[in-house]
Design brief:
By secondary structure, this protein is an alpha+beta fold. The chain has one domain. It is about 15% helix and about 35% strand. A 3-stranded antiparallel β-sheet has the order 1-2-3, with no helix packed on it. The longest helix has 6 residues.
Length: about 45
């Protein structure tokens, strides 16, 4: 499974899932969503 991550100028983190699980991975895991976005919070 290949994933790529990127951070934009506002600090948002984007993780992209290539959706290419092997048959073996499919037996023991679930496919992740195509993309995830993490929005930073103030500390």
């Amino acid at each position: 499974m290949r994933r790529f991550a990127s951070v934009d100028a506002q600090g948002h983190i984007f993780i992209v899932n290539r959706n290419d699980m092997t048959d073996k991975e499919g037996e023991i895991a679930q496919q992740a969503p195509p993309s995830l976005n993490s929005i930073p919070t103030a500390m």
